[in-house]
């Protein structure tokens, strides 16, 4: 049985929907930002908190867990700057509780949701896993801290783990059952689509004078089902191969500018966006694009869905829940 912590959230619920096809799954989530209805009905759902050893022990006592996938975290960059305690407490201290209980129950396979924010402002065009990690906010720091803890635990306690550093997750399941439901929503594609559905008056583009071909920031978008499949490949590598501990980037390998994303949303929806150009936000690098070559070579995984497919799936989802 696989324990998915944070499996009621956006990315976790998409992973669970894929994973139940081949494994027994139990989800632990406190529903602080997630939704119980997003959890696939084939999975067992337990409402509980990662930072509460009693909740964790109840799960490990009652179910034969052989691996843990850990999606549960706070992930609003701005909030992490104004309230770092909240981020270090949930993303680092609570994760330590989970690792401690795992070791107590001799569960040694772990998959961790990390982020492009661990790289900070990159000094290279295409980021690979050996690129410098220098986070510029407490959110990115909290994820890098856990990565460092995992390396020490692997050396000391024989923990096997895969760190997956996601770039921008986007899109919705092909089933039509789940999609992106963050509140507040801070991600570009859902914000544009909500605007095109009349739920927001306009879209702010933060800076059009960056050193990029059209002046807007370039980011790497990856379909959430592609992300889910990467987790399943990583899980296979942990369970079926000896010591596959590794850190991988997960991106599409292709960057798109904010303007290109807006243009593609207009194309997919047949609607016109009302855009205003706002000031740059501090800490926004001009370009964040991943090389996912390492996981392609090691596990044979690559992103299958391009930007148009990502937006098309998200558009169907947003229309269905408006
Ligand atoms: N969305 C992205 O583009 C993106 C990019 C990079 C990394 N990530 C990481 O991926 C993971 C999932 O992101 P998401 O967008 O699905 O976020 P989300 O907020 O939708 O999901 C997080 C889930 O964890 C749960 N949770 C949080 N704290 C908990 C706790 N203490 N105990 C139990 N459950 C708890 C929430 O209720 C929620 O269901 C996060 O770790 C995030 O940092 C996301």
TrEMBL record:
Catalytic activity: UDP-alpha-D-glucose = UDP-alpha-D-galactose
Occurrences of domain NAD-dependent epimerase/dehydratase (ranges): 2-251
GO biological process terms, semicolon-separated: galactose catabolic process via UDP-galactose, Leloir pathway
GO MF entries: UDP-glucose 4-epimerase activity
Biological pathway: Carbohydrate metabolism; galactose metabolism
Isomerase recorded as keyword: yes
Cofactors: NAD(+)
Keywords on record: Carbohydrate metabolism, Galactose metabolism, Isomerase, NAD
EC number(s) from the headed UniProt entry: 5.1.3.2
UniProt similarity note: Belongs to the NAD(P)-dependent epimerase/dehydratase family.
NCBIfam families the record matches: galE (TIGR01179)
UniProt subunit comment: Homodimer.
Name listed for the protein in its UniProt record: UDP-glucose 4-epimerase
Organism field: Mesobacillus boroniphilus
Gene expressing this chain: galE
């Amino acid at each position: 049985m696989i324990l998915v912590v944070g499996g009621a959230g956006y990315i976790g619920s998409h992973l669970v929907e894929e994973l139940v096809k081949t494994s027994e799954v139990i989800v632990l989530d406190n529903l602080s930002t997630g939704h119980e209805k997003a959890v696939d009905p084939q999975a067992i759902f337990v409402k509980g908190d990662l930072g509460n050893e009693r909740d964790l022990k109840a799960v490990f006592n009652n179910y034969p867990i052989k691996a843990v996938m850990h999606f549960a975290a706070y992930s609003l960059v701005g909030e992490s700057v104004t309230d770092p305690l909240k981020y270090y407490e949930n993303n680092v201290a609570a994760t330590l509780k989970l690792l401690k209980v795992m070791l107590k129950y001799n569960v040694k396979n772990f998959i961790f949701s990390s982020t492009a924010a661990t790289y900070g402002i990159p000094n290279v065009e295409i980021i690979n896993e050996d690129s410098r990690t220098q986070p510029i906010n407490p959110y990115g720091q909290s994820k890098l801290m856990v990565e460092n803890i995992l390396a020490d635990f692997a050396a000391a306690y024989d923990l096997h783990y895969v760190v997956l550093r996601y770039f921008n997750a986007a899109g919705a399941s092909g089933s039509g059952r789940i999609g992106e439901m963050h509140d507040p929503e801070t991600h570009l594609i859902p914000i544009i689509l909500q605007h095109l559905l009349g739920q927001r008056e306009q879209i702010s583009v933060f800076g059009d004078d960056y050193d990029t071909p059209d002046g807007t920031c370039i980011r790497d978008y990856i379909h959430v089902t592609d992300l889910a499949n990467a987790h399943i490949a990583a899980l296979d590598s942990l369970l079926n191969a000896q010591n596959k501990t590794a850190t991988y980037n997960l991106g599409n390998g292709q960057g798109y500018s904010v303007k290109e994303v807006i243009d593609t949303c207009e194309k997919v929806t047949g609607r016109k966006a009302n855009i205003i150009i706002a000031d740059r936000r501090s800490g926004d690098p001009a370009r964040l694009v991943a090389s996912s070559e390492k996981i392609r070579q090691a596990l044979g995984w690559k992103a299958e869905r391009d930007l148009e497919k990502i937006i098309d799936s998200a558009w169907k989802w947003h229309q269905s829940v408006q």
